[in-house]
Records
---
Amino acid sequence: MKYVIIGGSAAGLTAAETLRANDSEASITIVTDEPESGYARCLIPDVLAGAKELAGITWRAPGFGRKNNFSIIKDTRVVSLEPAQRQVLLHDGRAIGYDRLLVATGAVPVAPTGSGTGVEGIFTLRTYRQARAIGEAADKGKQAVVVGGGLVGLKAAVALRKRGVQRVTLLVESPHLLVRQLDEESAAMLERELNNQGINCIFGARPAEYVKNPGKGSLRSIILVDGSEIPADLVVVGKGVLPNITLVRNAGGMVGKGIKVDEHMQTTLPGVFAAGDCIEVNDLLTGRPVPSGLWPLAVEQGRCAAFNMLGKPRVYPPPVTRLNATQFGGLPLVSVGQVRIDGKAAEYTVHVSRTLHYYRKLVFKQDRLVGFIMLGNIDRAGVYTALVKKGIPVSQTLKQKLQDGTVCVWDLLTS
């Protein structure tokens, strides 16, 4: 059996290892467009900050390909799929045949907007090489602007300050930070923490033009749509990512916000499966199709896809797609599930606990916990997360413990 996997990150490598563990004789080829593979994308900001190099973010040891008898083709783009011929075409003209194909192409950064985007010094942050390039530019500059108030933008801004950039400005088009993960009150707490780290946040801001230095190609400043101008030696655009659906779409497969797959991770193309950030899934809490976009989900999906490619049926259940845990300075953050209920107050009840340095918001839909925010203190967050994922009714006694913060694992096991 010949397996081909496009993508060398969480979903692709997990699938490859699962295939090898269950089929010692199969031909397994991994094609990745990066020179490196097997590193954790969630640790890329540490590279930008200067805290880690490639070895420090690698989750598969060098030589794992040889150990597992994989053929890994690096720094190579797949330009098209030919499902009828059961082959993929590479940018260098080669064709690779397969019996089963896994598309694990991940996501691509949202492109910069505004005129003058070809100016030298404008970056996106998705890969190890991009983090290195931004770091080199940051070492030469004193003023950086980050565009985007989501997780990518915030982590980039914090990393630039850690690297030693003197002035970091964060441009946020939304009314507050992390609009998908936080409400207004918790976002204000996070903004104070960023301000304490020397990061200036400007809200309702959108770039209109990138201005270069006279007679040079390097960046001088950004002009916003309101006409204001911000000096900048470099810009990092962190406006999020979009599922990389191009190959499947061009081959005639069904796509939406991401590649459409069934419960066995199979696309609408014969013999072609997909997993990871490139696909869309039906969210457990809302039932709506949304991009997958989480590292743990990519691992689960890669494993599930591999079993189905092997002819050993596995069903992938709808996941909770909004699940984020991170830390900004001394402020840990966990946000899970439905945390914004604008316009749906009749269906939901909300309980908030707060101090000057701590915020906890619980969202219940009837008798079920469907979301929460913890900021500043994330004690027992795992128990709350498990209850959201299980979707089980919560008794009044357990609800009170959740509100008091006294819930424990035993309560979860006996509920």
---
Amino acid sequence: MKIDGHFDPDADIAWLRFEGYGPERAHGEEVDFGLRKTDPETGEIIALEYRKASETLPEEFLRMLPQPPVGVPG
């Protein structure tokens, strides 16, 4: 499985997108850690957004994620 991700330390938000992610078909739902996006046809999780990521995810993992490109929202 391929995973694409970014971490914005200023906003303290981490985005993880899994293989097959497509914004046109993602259904978002608020969860305790941020946002979970699922494929409405299969119910599979295709993306996760972690708010307060530095409190939720390991620091070593966050350091591995690149910052989002300038001018491109997560």
---
Amino acid sequence: MHAELHQPNAEELSILKNQEPLVSFEIVKPFGFSEGRQSRVTLLEYTAAGTNKQVVWKRMGAGKGLTEAEAHLFESRLRPYRNGLHNFGWRVPQTRYSQVVEVGGEFQVFSYDQFIPGGDAEHLVLNPEEPNFLKWHLLREIVSQLASYPQSDIDRKTLFGADVSVLPHGLDLKLANIVSAENGVFFVDLFGPKELNEDRSWKTYSPKLDILPPENLLAVTGTREGAFLRLYRLIERHWSSIGGVTVGTLRNQLKQLLENSRLASSETNFILSEVQDDYPWLDRVYKEQNV
């Protein structure tokens, strides 16, 4: 983790002071807090009525060169997307407030979000002091949540030669976007191309935010198989790198986990085949970017 990336610059601090002139914030050194690919993120602390309170301050779209219209479009979709996730059973932090601001000649979305203690999943998986059972709990919770979508909200579609299950919305299931807290697993990424239309095209899309073309992005974030495979490959890579468990052991236990889940057998078989063969479909999706 690069803590310096969480340090706000002078212009950002000036905007914060303008938005909250009566409140004194302290920047808290983040614990288990990974920097987002599309956002700059800082943990702020303030005191009210003698109680210390914390809030996550995000500068979404930082460095992406968004126009004012683009920033307003993505800001307008934060709450609808969050509500959609919540309706399908995901735990999602509350966004207290969001606003489009101009910073350094571009437009960003500043938001102030509920802080979920516990650290993100990247910190959990890479930490050798964290027990393996917590890492399996994380995987089991994600599989359970992915399997819980009503079948009526799932479409089948052929993408890059595979028949896969398309979700009603996108899920950027990176480890940095998941927080494993005492009261459950939270998904914390709301910004960017996320929502899907009824025909499963993207409601919003911008190459400024994603280098993957729309269909490739759909394969890895908008399908049950792709979203899970992307996440599991990251977990497998990080988990095995710290020692104490082999790739073979992880794959054997993954097989048991998936076969005991509510995923359809066709989905389970495809995922296990991909993992066993070292992710040929996933690699094809990433290599055939046409960019």
